[in-house]
Amino acid sequence: MLERRSLRAPVVLGIVLIVLLVVLGAIWFVSNFVSSPRGGLFWTLFVIGTVLLISILAGVIVYFTLTVKAIRLNQRQSNFIDSVTHELKSPIASLKLYLQTMSRHTVDENQQRDFHRFMLDDVERLDALINHLLDAARIDRGNQSDRVEVFRLDSLLGQCAQAACMRYRLPPETVHLDCEPTSIRSPSVQVEILFRNLIDNAIKYGGSPPEVTASIRPSGEKSKPDQVVVSIADNGAGIPYDMRRKIFGRFVRLGSELERSTPGTGLGLYLVRTISKSLGATIRIRGRKEVDGMPGTVFEVTMKDVVPTGTTT
Predict the structure, then answer these.
(1) Which of 54, 87, 159, 254 is deepest in the core (most CB within 10 A)?
(2) Residue-wise over 285-309: b if at least 16 C-beta within 10 A, else e?
(3) Is residue 262 within 8 Å of 203, Cβ to Cβ?
């Protein structure tokens, strides 16, 4: 409620100021044209006054827009802090509980194995979160790897899918691969971050159980034979049409941070968009119903610099 009020106040104030300026301008125009006579000085003052009035109106609109953007950014940063705090506190609390139990009580060998497995899961969760934050920091600073190499794009998708299934303890068939052997010339580190985040996002926001399909197909444009379209489809609830561009913003997540159960920081799709731009790739969001009539979302990434399979660096 506090966030809604903090955004409502500048919106109402900005609209009121704009309306007042428009009304004032209309009154000024009418009062000048009904008066007489009109000489050279009148037209000079009239032009100067009009320019000043338009400048003030434009300034108010710009200030209003920037204020709303700043408040929204502050809200997204608050959500980011809430999510990171939760993502850090949960595994740390779990690790502390298991360690305290093992130090204060006698546990048998089977329980020790279970505790060690649970603690390893918590450490991997922390490691994934830290790597995610480091990826975002490197990209923001422009320190991402630019070393171009030739590699198998289908193999990289398979590795990302396998790692995601292991991270969420899901069977390997959760991510279905429909990929012909495809080689590409690009910075492999950036491409790996891009598709790792897309597959991770598809699993987190998929159905129950999640079903993800990763496919590679030619772009279909005869003038661009060196391009392919990589599709990552999930079986989730889908993304509202009016949010399909906004979700690529930094710290943006749908819903309230205190009400959602899906872990995340709101940086995954921001990394996807930023890396896509740096690679010269394009990304498109489609409802899965448009593709095969199923519920869910499809992310389509058009990659360039495809090379014949078997080419080496």
Answers:
(1) 87
(2) bbbbeeeeeeebbbbbbbbbbbeee
(3) no
